[in-house]
């Protein structure tokens, strides 16, 4: 392997039609460059590159596939003297959505690892193929740079069997690897640790409920730094109400729609994943729009209010459930687009939970801020906090620790 004296880590997040990238300098926490390629495979793909301290470069041009997208971003980095052959680049960290049961830690990528990620495609048909395309191209563009896979599922592999199992026939479940895996693990790991740090406590001695509320949303119960339950399951469809996903639903709804409405499995899949959640309930999947409509006197305020209420009710049920799972809760941490920015959602979720030792101070909750901060009244039994997530930093940190053998001073 090449030298390990450099301090730059390139993080690649390859989705089905996009690649997001960020170059981080682990020595000083700076971010020399980042950007994205969107609408891969369409005629009007979009490229954006943001070098630190320089003007943004963006263009629209056809980008046929992930390989072409990665070549384009490598060229952009090269123009800033940050190419994939730069001696500063110590590793590339890839976000990989599904690591099954096998990958419990960040893992240096070799042929066996790539083959195992491929073997998991049936349980993550939308995500793992795109992640693999990114990995294969990066390996061919930078064969000498160590590459690390950081799995969305890894943090949840500590869930006890009784939380990970569905109550279905064990033989069927085992043959088809049907169990609860959980997702957003990189964020849950980062935020649960951040919440403990905010309280000045060791993560290993802190119990946290993490509410990751973005376009996708999930909750997790973290006991002493280890995940003991999470709301997403075999796929990222289970659990909370999301922008376009239903979250928990009686599985018999699927049979009903098939038998009574004559819908195909693919149509029901599309309904539950893309046309449900906030969008299905009120026609908008963006919480900003839902909040704006609720405050208006317009005719569409009512459906927005209902969508908000369903969203909040589901969240409160998970908070209550995870109180029971954890026994003792030290902190509830809100994160991601909605969790970090939507004060009315945080207020509504926590309303009436004083019996559980939880409350939100309206002034602290409404105050602007972009760092980790407490929003519960001083002296509360359970701290309620906003802890901004940073999945890129967490992937870079885990990657860097693995290739440099350090712990970056983490507890
Ligand atoms: P994420 O997936 O973490 O980027 O979160 C995206 C979601 O965050 C968007 O769909 C919005 O619904 C939500 N969001 C972002 N900013 C705000 C805000 N200021 N108020 C309410 N919701 C917001």
UniProtKB/TrEMBL annotation:
The keyword Nucleotide-binding applies. Its EC number is 2.7.2.1. GO terms for molecular function: acetate kinase activity; ATP binding; magnesium ion binding. Its main location: cytoplasm. It is found in: Cytoplasm. Mg(2+) binds at residues 13, 391. ATP binds at residues 20, 212-216, 286-288, 337-341. Mg(2+). Can also accept Mn(2+). Pfam families: Acetate_kinase. The active site is at 152 (proton donor/acceptor). Signal peptide: none annotated. GO terms for biological process: acetate metabolic process; acetyl-CoA biosynthetic process. Its cofactor is Mg(2+); Mn(2+). Keywords: ATP-binding, Cytoplasm, Kinase, Magnesium, Metal-binding, Nucleotide-binding, Transferase. It is an enzyme of class 2 (transferase). Homodimer. Belongs to the acetokinase family. Catalyzes the formation of acetyl phosphate from acetate and ATP. Can also catalyze the reverse reaction. This is Acetate kinase. It comes from Streptomyces taklimakanensis. The gene is ackA.
């Amino acid at each position: 392997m090449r030298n390990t004296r450099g301090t730059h880590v390139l993080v690649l997040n390859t989705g089905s039609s996009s690649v997001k990238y960020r170059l981080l300098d682990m020595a000083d926490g700076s971010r020399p460059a980042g950007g994205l390629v969107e609408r891969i495979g369409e005629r009007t793909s979009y490229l954006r590159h943001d070098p630190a301290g320089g003007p943004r470069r963006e263009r629209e041009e056809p980008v046929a596939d992930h390989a072409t997208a990665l070549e384009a971003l490598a060229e952009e980095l090269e123009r800033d003297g940050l190419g994939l052959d730069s001696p500063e680049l110590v590793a590339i960290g890839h976000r990989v959505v599904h690591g099954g049961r096998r990958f419990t830690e960040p893992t240096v990528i070799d042929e066996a690892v790539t083959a195992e990620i491929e073997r998991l495609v049936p349980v993550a048909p939308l995500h793992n193929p795109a992640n693999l395309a990114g990995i294969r191209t990066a390996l061919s563009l930078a064969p000498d740079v160590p590459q690390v896979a950081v799995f969305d599922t890894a943090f949840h592999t500590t869930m006890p069997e009784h939380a990970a199992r569905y109550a279905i026939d064990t033989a069927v479940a085992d043959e088809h690897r049907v169990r609860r895996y959980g997702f957003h693990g990189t964020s849950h790991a980062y935020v649960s640790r951040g919440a403990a740090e905010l309280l000045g406590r060791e993560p290993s001695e802190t119990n946290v409920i993490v509410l990751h509320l973005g376009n996708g949303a999930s909750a997790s119960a973290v006991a002493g730094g280890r995940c003991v339950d999470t709301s997403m399951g075999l796929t990222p469809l289970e659990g909370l109400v999301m922008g376009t996903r239903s979250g928990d639903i009686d599985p018999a709804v699927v049979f009903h729609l098939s038998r009574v409405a004559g819908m195909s499995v693919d149509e029901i899949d599309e309904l539950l994943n893309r046309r449900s959640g906030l969008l299905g309930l009120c026609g908008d999947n963006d919480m900003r729009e839902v909040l704006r409509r609720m405050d208006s006197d317009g005719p569409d305020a009512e459906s927005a209010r209902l969508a908000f209420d369903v969203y909040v009710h589901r969240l409160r049920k998970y908070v209550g459930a995870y109180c029971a799972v954890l026994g003792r809760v030290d902190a509830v941490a809100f994160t991601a687009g909605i969790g970090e920015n939507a004060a009315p959602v945080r207020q509504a979720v926590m309303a009436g939970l004083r019996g559980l030792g939880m409350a939100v101070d309206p002034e602290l909750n409404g105050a602007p801020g972009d760092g980790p901060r407490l929003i519960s009244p001083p002296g509360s039994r359970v701290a309620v906090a906003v802890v901004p997530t940073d999945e890129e930093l967490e992937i870079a940190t885990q990657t860097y620790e693995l290739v440099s053998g350090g712990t970056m001073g983490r507890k």
